[in-house]
Amino acid sequence: MDHAVKQPENVNLPLLTYVGFTFLGYFIIGLSLSVLPIFISRNLGFSLVIAGLVISLQYVATFFLRAYSGKIIDGKGPKLAVLFSMLSFSLTGIFLVLAYYFKFSPIISLGFLIISRLLTGCGEGMIGASPINWAIMALGEKHTAKIISYNGVACYGALAIGASLGVVIEHQFGLYGIGILSIIVGFSGFLFAKTKTNYTNSHTQDSQSFWKVLGKVSPFGICLALGGIGFASISTFITLYYNYFHWNNGALCLTVFGGLFVAGRLVFSNVINNYGGIRVAIACLLVEAIGLLIISFATNSEMALFGAGVTGLGFSLIFPALGVVAIKSVSPSSQGSALAGYGLFIDLSLGVAGPLIGGVADIWGMKYIFPFSALMVFLGLGVAYILKTKLSFKKS
After folding, report:
1. What is the per-residue pLDDT for 2?
2. 3-state helix, strand, coil in the chain (%, to 5)
């Protein structure tokens, strides 16, 4: 990396200017997160499986853009990736507006929503690793754990805020209002990114291919993917779950989930450096699974709300805990590809989770989606124990 620029001693404020792009991108994603499943199933009349598939198209597009994003970051710097993502997010708003105006024709409206989800996936694929790498290049590798943690706060905090605000906007203005706000926020992010200095990796001669890097980070990514099922079940289906039991304020679960997620990142920000990434991941996966079981056995909305908070607290440090270990498994010159490859697995998790959990709901009933999600997280806990054993063996 190019370290010619003097790195500031206090990195908190400069760091916010980089992870702010993550906040803008995931705020736009969150705006339609709670609204689209209900719009597709109720307003357009399609099944929960179709709703899940359309939502998951975002993560399919993200999956394919991750490799390209890592290549751009390692070769041309992260600024270009951020600019591309902000434009993509702006375009999603245009197609949301079109989907709203063509809701009288379910097939046409669904087609516009599909395009919107694909563009959202393109934006997420390019924004996923680029602010992290941009901040590391500008502020120094010694701040990697803090950068990843703060980026996650921006990500899931933005999802929680966006999801709750999206419900309010949809009630007042419909999908049209969400589309207009997406256009404004995305273009504002584009203009701000143009003002910032780009950084490039000056040590590319020993960089490895993306697929070789992917192979090295995949064990940690698989563990992350299984842990991500819990987040996916809440983010995509919690509003429908509340409707099934005739409870109110389902979107509040996303706010509580995001709030406890942020609290976990801030309060326990040093535990990864103190105890190691694998140990922290094991503890977090256990807490997440307990939270999902609380939702599974909830007899009222308050108990489910508590379970969502526990789940958010558990999920809070899984990505940075495993991410720090994953980055150490590759050379510094392949850091962009490593983060992009590692991030693929959360995209894969969220992409598969939509139709998978929707299928569980359609076949066995809505009440089985959270026990199923808890089982997946317990499998992730098992993978984490295997990784811990292998790492301990290598050290010895």
Report:
1. 45
2. 85, 0, 15
Q: What gap in Å lies between CA 64 and CA 59, rounded to an integer?
A: 9
Is there a contact between 186 and 24 (Cβ–Cβ < 8 Å)?
Answer: yes
Name the residue with tokens 């989800």.
117
**Angle (CA) 314 157 289, round 5°:** 15
**Which residues have CB under 8 Å from 345's CB, separation 6+?**
218, 221, 222, 224, 225, 228
pLDDT, residue 193, reads 92
Tell the residue number behind the tokens 């503890």, with chain if given: 283
Q: Residue 323 is inside which H or E element, if any?
A: helix 318-327
With a cut of 50, list the residues of the chain below it in pLDDT: 1-5
Q: Are 314 and 156 in contact (CB under 8 A)?
A: no
User: What tokens does 104 get?
Assistant: 């009288």
Please report the pLDDT score of residue 3 as a whole number: 43
Cα(265)–Cα(88) distance, integer angstroms: 29
What pLDDT was estimated at residue 203? 56
| pTM recorded for the entire structure | 0.72
Taking the C-alpha atoms of residue 376 and residue 368, their distance in angstroms, rounded to an integer, is: 13
The rounded distance, in Å, linking the Cα atoms of 116 and 29 is: 11
Are 61 and 328 in contact, with CB atoms under 8 Å apart?
Answer: no
Cα–Cα distance measured from residue 32 to residue 249, given in angstroms and rounded to the nearest whole number: 16
Query: In angstroms, rounded to a whole number, what is the distance separating the alpha carbons of residues 109 and 261?
Result: 34
Which pLDDT does position 375 carry in this prediction? 94
Q: Identity (one letter) of the amino acid at 267?
A: V
In angstroms, the CA 386 to CA 12 distance is: 35
pLDDT of 56 reads: 77
Q: What is the DSSP string of 242-284?
A: HHHTT-S-THHHHHHHHHHHHHHHHHTTTHHHHH-HHHHHHHH
DSSP state of 300: S
- The pLDDT of residue 98: 94
DSSP state of 392: H
